[in-house]
Amino acid sequence: MRLSARNIIRGKVEKIEKGDVTAVVKVKIETPVVITSVITRESIEDLNLKEGDDAVVVIKSTEVMIGKE
């Protein structure tokens, strides 16, 4: 995965809370700290994101996005 953003943090998906439209994803990083991001439910399904998956947290401006390699 190649992105222009430079603030990339790797971690493990700790918890997913699905709503009707959005989902809250908690990613635990090594420090240990949990980073929380609210993304669309469609993104959860497109990424096939599940608790326990390795994930990449990308921080750009005021956005916190979730990715999966």
Which terms summarize this structure?
single chain; 69 residues; mainly beta; OB fold (Dihydrolipoamide Acetyltransferase, E2P); five-stranded antiparallel β-sheet; 1 helix; 5 strands; 10% helix; globular
Could you walk me through the main structural features you see in this protein, from its secondary elements to its overall organization?
By secondary structure, this protein is mainly beta. The protein has one domain (7-67): RNA polymerase II/Efflux pump adaptor protein, barrel-sandwich hybrid domain (OB fold (Dihydrolipoamide Acetyltransferase, E2P), Beta Barrel), CATH 2.40.50. The protein is 10% helix and 58% strand. The protein has one helix spanning 41-47; strands spanning 7-18, 22-29, 33-40, 54-60, 63-67. Strands 3-2-1-4-5 form a 5-stranded antiparallel beta sheet. The longest helix has 7 residues, at 41-47.
Count the helices. How many? 1
Radius of gyration, rounded? 11 Å
**Overall CATH architecture:** Beta Barrel
Helical proportion, percent range: 10-25%
**What is the CATH C-level name?**
Mainly Beta
Proportion of beta-strand residues = over 45%
